[in-house]
Write a structure and sequence with these properties.
Length: 351
Amino acid sequence: MLLYRLLLKSRAKAWRKAPHAEVPTICVGNITVGGTGKTPHTEMILDMLQQHYKWGSANLAVLSRGYKRRSRGFQQVMTDSTAAFAGDEPLQIKRKFPAVTVAVDKDRVEGCSFLVHPEKLQEPVKKLRRIRDKQFPPAGLIVLDDAFQYNKLHADLNIVLVDYNRPLHTDRLLPFGRLRDLPERIADADVVIVTKCPYELDDWERTVWAGNLGLRKDQTLLFSCIEYLDPVPVFPETDSRYSYSKSLVLFTGIANDTPLRYSLSDKYRIVEAISFPDHHKFSRADMTKVASAVRRHPTAALFTTEKDAGRVLDCRKIPAEIKQRLFHVPIRVRFLTDRERELFEERLSRL
């Protein structure tokens, strides 16, 4: 454990000395493994940037590692890409923001360079041969997904997400807890957002959070909550009438589906729930298992998450029972107060 701590300290030291990209960058990251809401917060930030007086006319880009994708090197993500090619999260972002350039690259320095200078993609480099023949404008601002532990690039605005239900001061480093990084790295954040909060927090609880995190005066502490929207059909043949059913079968492949279950249980009776690992690649056997659950409940709707729906579409020979009843539940986040949104917009203006 001592060696692991020393390794994390060395990585953090390198991160602090790392260079910046040629254009402004925003990093959305965390200190714990999975489940803090990076993708919906990235989407919220993109929506705010598109409405911002300073960045609304800029060429926005998102750069992700593309976790569990099959492609290699720098790849541009298109709306018709597959989750296997791009990764489920970058694909979801691209489909929601088609005007934003979305790319994946494990090498974030290289990825930023290509986004700022797309003409470099025409150079005859072997590992770039598989890039789709698409063009995009030079990026004016790049949002970096999950790059807080990437020690070769230092973002201009570092946002760290902390789960309301998992305070850092009560957690431990892997493998004994869920911390992927040293808790004191919270000091490297410009903005800390406590996610998955109740819809209202009093001043006392906000003060307790600030004290437990040990933030400086120049760091901004904000609070956000999750909102689940009305279910959306996944397939053209999905019968919308099933969304009015009072019972449902739920299957998910995300880090933590508890908030979703709680939200759905207010309106539906979850008669069966099937959980797969985070970023799970659905197989034909998985779809057969889900179809069997649907047959056991002839009047129930079938729900999954928006991120999982992208991976379901990669499957072949999906049973008709699934196509007829499958809906995904869109998710979005928002700050608890208008003042918090204004504070964040001020941070964007300083870039």
